[in-house]
Amino acid sequence: MSQIVKAYDVRGVYPDQLDDRLAELFGAAFVEVTGAGAIVIGHDMRPSSPGLASSFARGAVSRGADATIIGLCSTDQLYFASGDMDMPGAMFTASHNPAQYNGIKMCRAGAAPVGQDTGLAEIRALAEGWLTDGAPASVTKPGHLGQRDTLTDYAAYLLSLVDVSAIRPLKVVVDAGNGMGGHTVPTVFADLPLDVVPMYFELDGTFPNHEANPLDPKNIVDLQARVLAEGADLGLAFDGDADRCFVVDERGQGVSPSAITALVAARELAKYPGGTIIHNLITSWSVPQVVREHGGTPVRTRVGHSFIKQEMARTGAVFGGEHSAHYYFRDFWNADTGMLAALHVLAALGGQRGPLSELVASYDRYAGSGEINSTVDDQAARTAAVRASFASRDDVTFDELDGLTVTGADWWFNLRPSNTEPLLRLNVEARDAATMERVRDEALALIRT
Questions:
Q1: How is residue 330 annotated by DSSP?
Q2: From start to end of 220-312, where are the E strands?
Q3: Distance in angstroms (rounded) separating the CA atoms of residues 63 and 82
Q4: Contact call for residues 120 and 112 (beta carbons, < 8 A)
Q5: d(CA 249, CA 232)
Q6: Greatest C-alpha distance within the chain
Q7: Chain segment 26-40, per-residue pLDDT in tens
């Protein structure tokens, strides 16, 4: 259990760590902890997902809850179902992880997150206690099991949130990575003036073409080449469960998720003047600047969807973005949806005549390193060494909201430990590339000593 129950979800190798019996226990425990009378369950295209989802449903039904299985769906489609049907939900997916993995993302009614501090620890404890003898017999009669298709309603709801009436004809290459984008994109984009060039739309949980993780640059190489070959206006890449979306411009260059965060923030602030925008501490300086320029209030938070969603709820924020390409919308129950962010990009680009590279230039103002991982023997000692080295300078400040952030006059960097691996993650940004490279190299030398 300690290996597969993470901070925000359950994830492990199937069937060695997560199997159908355990999924059934998680289903029973989920109902017990949430007190749900009805739940909704979806799954991705991994070979093990349908069986795991059915087992989870069996466990839920055994505790007296009605279970509605919506079948193949993206994670944000499951969030839609949870919000629209006002039911707790469970999504079977391992997102961008390799084929041998699977997992469960759980939420309460209205897509409210379930994490270690919001029910996941209790779910784990119950399931663990039932491992030997199984869950005790339910004191109520078993629930009912049903099915429902939510794809059309999901698409219609997303399209109701973005004005797409002025989009000019665009050619867009979409790399679904053999993941759930191949299921959702054809329906969501069906009536838009788009010439869609599909890549890897075949649902295949063995990921025969590349890992479904667009955050790794090697996994968008095919998309970049195809955008250039097709003379397309842009490219979109979705991860395995299609809750994240990455953007490539007409030159085949990746667009920073921070720039997309700033662009969407500006559009949401036009819709909700004076609104609050959440951004995590490794997004670009551009994000809070753009938010203020458009009359909004930026709020900085830790990395991780549970922190973003908590702040969204606390502040009533209209939008939140992370540099990992997770985008959260108040209009979507504070949940993350890469598809809605993609529609905003299409509407923004299609509503004017210029290319995407020009459109995003005003939102991408600084030089960034991207995330650089370093394997270390002692995360705390290496972080302390970095802090000590920079502490002698008069022109820097420190904060420890999440890891160590060091800020100079024209640069900043954040150094965070991984919770699951012996890694330190470094992100650097500066006003120009030369300064960024200098600060990056100095920090890496200290980290890797």
A1: G
A2: 234-238, 245-248, 254-255, 276-280, 297-301
A3: 19
A4: no
A5: 9
A6: 69
A7: 999 999 999 999 999
- The CA-atom distances, in angstroms, between 352 and each of 82, 166, 167, 293 are 35, 9, 8, 21
Quick check: 327 and 340 in contact, CB under 8 A?
yes
Report pLDDT for 69: 98
- b or e along 210-242 (b: 16 or more beta carbons within 10 Å of the residue's beta carbon)? bbbbbbeeebbebbbebbeeeebbbbbbbbbbb
**pLDDT tens, residue by residue, 248-299:** 999 999 999 999 999 999 999 999 999 999 999 999 999 999 999 999 999 9
pLDDT < 50 positions in the chain: none
Identify the pLDDT of residue 133.
87
Which residue in the block uniquely carries the two structure tokens 């998309």? Answer: 223
pLDDT of residue 390: 96
Give the separation between CA 159 and CA 134, rounded to whole angstroms: 44
**Catalytic site positions:** 95
Domains of the chain plus CATH, in order, are 10-149 (3.40.120.10), 153-252 (3.40.120.10), 257-361 (3.40.120.10), 368-447 (3.30.310.50)
Residue 77 backbone dihedrals phi, psi, to 5 degrees: -70, -35
Whole-number Å distance between alpha carbons of 137 and 393: 65
